[in-house]
Specification:
Layout: E1 7-15, H1 22-25, H2 45-48, E2 70-73, H3 85-93, E3 97-100, H4 105-113, E4 117-120, H5 123-135, E5 140-144, E6 149-152, E7 157-160, H6 165-173, H7 177-183, H8 185-194
Parallel strand pairs: 1-2, 2-3, 3-4
Antiparallel strand pairs: 1-5, 5-6, 6-7
Protein backbone atom coordinates (compact mmCIF):
# COMPACT_ATOMS: atom_id res chain seq x y z
CA UNK A 1 0.00 0.00 0.00
CA UNK A 2 3.03 2.30 0.04
CA UNK A 3 2.42 4.99 -2.55
CA UNK A 4 4.01 8.36 -3.10
CA UNK A 5 1.55 11.18 -2.56
CA UNK A 6 1.72 14.50 -4.38
CA UNK A 7 -1.39 16.05 -5.97
CA UNK A 8 -4.61 14.06 -6.37
CA UNK A 9 -7.63 15.20 -8.37
CA UNK A 10 -10.65 12.91 -8.16
CA UNK A 11 -14.39 12.67 -7.91
CA UNK A 12 -15.64 11.84 -4.41
CA UNK A 13 -17.72 9.36 -2.46
CA UNK A 14 -19.95 11.28 0.00
CA UNK A 15 -20.76 9.90 3.44
CA UNK A 16 -22.60 12.77 5.16
CA UNK A 17 -22.91 11.01 8.52
CA UNK A 18 -21.45 12.31 11.77
CA UNK A 19 -19.76 10.24 14.48
CA UNK A 20 -18.85 7.32 12.22
CA UNK A 21 -16.91 5.03 14.54
CA UNK A 22 -14.34 2.38 13.75
CA UNK A 23 -16.82 -0.46 14.38
CA UNK A 24 -18.98 0.94 11.59
CA UNK A 25 -15.93 1.34 9.36
CA UNK A 26 -14.87 -2.29 9.95
CA UNK A 27 -17.06 -4.46 12.22
CA UNK A 28 -15.29 -6.27 15.06
CA UNK A 29 -15.98 -9.74 13.64
CA UNK A 30 -13.49 -9.02 10.84
CA UNK A 31 -10.58 -8.22 13.15
CA UNK A 32 -9.19 -11.75 13.49
CA UNK A 33 -6.97 -11.38 10.43
CA UNK A 34 -3.48 -9.96 10.87
CA UNK A 35 -2.87 -9.42 7.16
CA UNK A 36 -4.13 -6.25 5.49
CA UNK A 37 -5.37 -8.10 2.41
CA UNK A 38 -9.12 -8.19 1.87
CA UNK A 39 -10.10 -5.55 4.41
CA UNK A 40 -11.40 -3.23 1.69
CA UNK A 41 -14.05 -5.82 0.85
CA UNK A 42 -15.49 -5.42 4.34
CA UNK A 43 -15.39 -1.60 4.58
CA UNK A 44 -18.72 -0.40 6.07
CA UNK A 45 -19.88 -4.01 5.75
CA UNK A 46 -23.06 -3.73 7.82
CA UNK A 47 -24.12 -0.64 5.89
CA UNK A 48 -23.18 -2.11 2.51
CA UNK A 49 -24.79 -5.54 2.77
CA UNK A 50 -27.91 -7.28 4.06
CA UNK A 51 -27.47 -10.26 6.39
CA UNK A 52 -27.47 -12.60 3.38
CA UNK A 53 -24.65 -10.61 1.72
CA UNK A 54 -26.88 -8.83 -0.80
CA UNK A 55 -25.62 -5.28 -1.51
CA UNK A 56 -27.93 -2.57 -0.16
CA UNK A 57 -28.82 -0.40 -3.14
CA UNK A 58 -29.25 2.74 -1.06
CA UNK A 59 -25.72 2.71 0.41
CA UNK A 60 -23.28 5.08 -1.26
CA UNK A 61 -20.54 2.49 -1.97
CA UNK A 62 -23.09 0.47 -3.92
CA UNK A 63 -24.18 3.46 -6.02
CA UNK A 64 -22.23 3.51 -9.30
CA UNK A 65 -22.64 7.27 -9.75
CA UNK A 66 -20.22 7.84 -6.87
CA UNK A 67 -16.63 6.88 -7.49
CA UNK A 68 -13.13 8.13 -6.92
CA UNK A 69 -10.33 7.89 -4.39
CA UNK A 70 -11.60 10.62 -2.04
CA UNK A 71 -14.07 9.85 0.74
CA UNK A 72 -15.90 12.91 2.08
CA UNK A 73 -17.20 12.14 5.57
CA UNK A 74 -19.17 13.91 8.27
CA UNK A 75 -17.77 15.38 11.47
CA UNK A 76 -15.98 13.16 14.01
CA UNK A 77 -14.86 10.42 11.65
CA UNK A 78 -13.08 7.39 13.13
CA UNK A 79 -14.21 7.71 16.73
CA UNK A 80 -14.47 4.67 19.00
CA UNK A 81 -11.84 1.97 19.36
CA UNK A 82 -8.29 2.48 18.16
CA UNK A 83 -8.29 -0.49 15.74
CA UNK A 84 -5.85 0.07 12.90
CA UNK A 85 -7.97 -2.32 10.82
CA UNK A 86 -10.32 0.61 10.08
CA UNK A 87 -7.52 2.41 8.25
CA UNK A 88 -6.58 -0.87 6.53
CA UNK A 89 -10.15 -1.16 5.23
CA UNK A 90 -10.20 2.43 3.93
CA UNK A 91 -6.85 2.00 2.18
CA UNK A 92 -7.77 -1.48 0.96
CA UNK A 93 -10.93 -0.18 -0.67
CA UNK A 94 -8.79 2.27 -2.63
CA UNK A 95 -9.36 5.58 -0.90
CA UNK A 96 -6.28 7.83 -0.86
CA UNK A 97 -7.89 10.78 0.96
CA UNK A 98 -10.57 11.21 3.61
CA UNK A 99 -11.98 14.72 4.07
CA UNK A 100 -13.87 15.65 7.25
CA UNK A 101 -14.23 18.57 9.63
CA UNK A 102 -12.90 16.47 12.54
CA UNK A 103 -11.11 13.13 12.98
CA UNK A 104 -10.51 11.07 16.09
CA UNK A 105 -6.77 11.48 16.75
CA UNK A 106 -5.79 7.80 16.82
CA UNK A 107 -7.74 7.03 13.65
CA UNK A 108 -6.20 10.05 11.94
CA UNK A 109 -2.70 8.76 12.73
CA UNK A 110 -3.65 5.24 11.64
CA UNK A 111 -4.75 6.62 8.27
CA UNK A 112 -1.44 8.46 7.86
CA UNK A 113 0.48 5.28 8.74
CA UNK A 114 -1.42 3.48 5.98
CA UNK A 115 -0.80 6.10 3.27
CA UNK A 116 -4.28 7.62 3.46
CA UNK A 117 -4.31 11.40 3.87
CA UNK A 118 -6.86 12.73 6.40
CA UNK A 119 -7.75 16.30 5.44
CA UNK A 120 -9.43 18.49 8.06
CA UNK A 121 -11.57 21.30 6.63
CA UNK A 122 -13.98 23.82 8.13
CA UNK A 123 -17.59 22.74 8.66
CA UNK A 124 -18.63 25.39 6.13
CA UNK A 125 -16.28 24.03 3.47
CA UNK A 126 -17.43 20.47 4.19
CA UNK A 127 -21.10 21.47 3.83
CA UNK A 128 -20.33 23.17 0.52
CA UNK A 129 -18.49 20.09 -0.69
CA UNK A 130 -21.42 17.82 0.15
CA UNK A 131 -23.75 20.23 -1.67
CA UNK A 132 -21.52 20.27 -4.76
CA UNK A 133 -21.32 16.47 -4.90
CA UNK A 134 -25.08 16.17 -4.38
CA UNK A 135 -25.73 18.60 -7.25
CA UNK A 136 -23.16 16.95 -9.52
CA UNK A 137 -21.58 13.57 -8.63
CA UNK A 138 -18.84 14.31 -11.18
CA UNK A 139 -17.57 17.21 -9.05
CA UNK A 140 -13.83 16.87 -8.64
CA UNK A 141 -11.67 17.83 -5.69
CA UNK A 142 -7.94 18.52 -5.85
CA UNK A 143 -5.81 17.72 -2.83
CA UNK A 144 -2.33 19.24 -3.06
CA UNK A 145 -0.14 17.78 -0.33
CA UNK A 146 3.00 19.85 -1.05
CA UNK A 147 0.98 23.10 -0.79
CA UNK A 148 -1.38 21.65 1.84
CA UNK A 149 -4.51 22.83 0.04
CA UNK A 150 -7.81 21.20 -0.86
CA UNK A 151 -9.93 22.70 -3.65
CA UNK A 152 -13.56 22.12 -4.56
CA UNK A 153 -13.16 22.33 -8.34
CA UNK A 154 -16.91 22.78 -8.70
CA UNK A 155 -16.81 26.15 -6.96
CA UNK A 156 -13.11 27.01 -7.09
CA UNK A 157 -12.98 27.43 -3.33
CA UNK A 158 -9.83 26.26 -1.54
CA UNK A 159 -8.79 25.74 2.05
CA UNK A 160 -5.43 25.05 3.61
CA UNK A 161 -5.04 21.99 5.84
CA UNK A 162 -2.49 21.11 8.50
CA UNK A 163 -0.27 18.03 8.58
CA UNK A 164 2.68 16.97 10.70
CA UNK A 165 5.88 17.74 8.77
CA UNK A 166 7.34 14.28 9.32
CA UNK A 167 4.18 12.53 8.08
CA UNK A 168 4.06 14.86 5.09
CA UNK A 169 7.65 13.88 4.24
CA UNK A 170 6.78 10.17 4.53
CA UNK A 171 3.69 10.46 2.30
CA UNK A 172 5.44 12.51 -0.39
CA UNK A 173 8.30 9.99 -0.49
CA UNK A 174 6.18 6.85 -0.11
CA UNK A 175 8.02 5.67 2.99
CA UNK A 176 6.93 4.41 6.38
CA UNK A 177 8.60 4.77 9.79
CA UNK A 178 10.90 1.77 9.23
CA UNK A 179 11.99 3.06 5.82
CA UNK A 180 12.74 6.44 7.38
CA UNK A 181 14.90 4.87 10.10
CA UNK A 182 16.78 2.76 7.55
CA UNK A 183 17.43 5.86 5.43
CA UNK A 184 18.99 7.48 8.48
CA UNK A 185 20.86 4.43 9.74
CA UNK A 186 24.30 5.97 9.28
CA UNK A 187 23.32 9.15 11.13
CA UNK A 188 21.87 7.10 13.98
CA UNK A 189 24.99 4.94 14.23
CA UNK A 190 27.19 8.05 14.14
CA UNK A 191 25.18 9.64 16.96
CA UNK A 192 25.47 6.44 19.00
CA UNK A 193 29.25 6.35 18.47
CA UNK A 194 29.60 9.94 19.63
CA UNK A 195 27.36 9.51 22.65
CA UNK A 196 28.56 6.17 23.99
CA UNK A 197 29.46 6.31 27.66
Amino acid sequence: MKQKFNIITSTCVPLPLENVDTDQIIPARFLKATDKKGFGDNLFYDWRYDKDGTPKKDFVLNNPIYKGVILVAGKNFGSGSSREHAAWAIAGYGFRVVISSFFADIHKNNELNNFVLPVVVSEDFLAELFASIDADPDTEVTVDLPDQTVTNNGTGRSERFEINGYKKHCLINGIDDIDYLLQNKEKIEEWERKNRQ
